[in-house]
């Protein structure tokens, strides 16, 4: 898999530019637009599902119109705590990992990845259906092609950068906000006098149903409606996942963005549910429930004989449909962040933690885009099928997050002055999330929810196997480090620099840190070419991945670490009487960084011979090795050879070289006068003609 790359299209980025993080970071408003649109877009399908679930008992809409905003603010308050505890981002994944343990984090992260893939797929499919509903019917047959084109476009703009993708879609978001303020505000103000009558109707309905069915029935009906409309809550966690990309002070910016999201979602979702009851709307064939409501609200909007109502409805539905595309963009933005954090913790291949020159996880974006397109093609883009698969996983993460917060505040009673208030919020959030999760699984399991849980389980198992692979390999490299460090003198310190001859042959080593692999490579190369090499040069690339992209301070810490590791190589060489130096660079692209370092080495030492080490351990050379390890040494070797320079990749057999001689399967010819010296006795010779049997096929 090392050949799957975009090597020549990356741009050099100065990661020490003090304005870099300011230019890339999001203010609270842009964070609300980019990370909060998923939740707002759920108004297209969440509130209608809630209302349909109350069929025959629509009076309970009043309770849900109040309960939805309350539950939204409870969950949002919990995630504000997450933002304060984990300003480095990661949201529910880091919360579960840190407060409940690594395996809980694995479940939370896996659930989120599947959820965001489904978010991208269902949002695009829903948006396309909403837009095609205002076009001629024959366009509907082509919806799957439009879905794929839209997803490819979203992938493309995200590869150009997160902030750029948000700015492209900002007009749609603002159009949605303005049209919904106008239409929903008009609907509420126009019937504010009907509120007392609606309240009386609700009380009478509750009294009737309690006498006929009992209060337990009413409570169960309310929770069922909550669960079936669970899509309304999706996206609430996105802000906490992306705190690390927000403008300083991050905590305040993230919490402000969460407030914007909670207020806007509560007002839109709560107003829609209340207006359904107020206008007594019912679904019409070929129209969404929201379309029926908007037509009812704008009925009579005439001026000078022109029906402005139909244009208001058209524009409102248009922005509602287009907002779903922004929600899909949120999934494409946020899922790679979760994947990068999991890759840092070794649950996923390390390549997902790498950032491009646009500071986005290119591998994650491409995978999420491909998976979303595959789901759309598999389901034919049918929203009804996708809805069944949706909204289960986000409540797995909500529940684990709130459980982690509950555990944390309960254990922090002695150190946290306001622990009781925070504990109450997290307990309430856990009750709401766990209840909706349980009912959602119960309601949707037979309809296809089992498939979502199965896919999530598969992701968990695969991630765990990846983690075990990396852990086993880490144990092997630790043993190698322990063995090779025996050759390093105690108290190693850099001495006076030895003069280097730029015209002499130079051994150049690609290393990552001062470890057993690097030392083994150095000593092996020295044994091979030490007789004519005059200089030793070490090249180190400090890669700015998800774990380091936390601000200028994190980059400076990376620089200090890399230079300290490089200095140890030089000190070791000096202790052995070898002239040595080092070069280092810092970038997001490992291939680009190594190429730049090679150019510097060639510039100062034109007679350079390059070396890199590669761990060989037979049980781990599986077909999936290329997926789990980038193997960039082979890419650099290929390019250096094209430029006329030699590079040798030295195998490091951590389990020892096989003792058995290789089997020879083909007949081999050799000169009859070949003379081999056996051992130390030069007189004991064996001629080729007498060894013909040894080279017959075995």
TrEMBL record:
Membrane topology: Multi-pass membrane protein
Molecular function terms from GO: transmembrane transporter activity
Pfam families, sorted: AA_permease_2
Alphabetic keyword roster: Membrane, Transmembrane, Transmembrane helix
Record localization: Membrane
InterPro entries: AA/rel_permease1, APC_K+_Transporter
Transmembrane segments: 59-79, 112-138, 144-161, 168-193, 213-236, 257-279, 322-344, 364-381, 387-407, 419-442, 448-467
Domain of life: Bacteria
Example of a GO cellular component annotation carried by this entry: membrane
PANTHER family the record matches: POTASSIUM TRANSPORTER KIMA
Protein name as catalogued: Amino acid permease
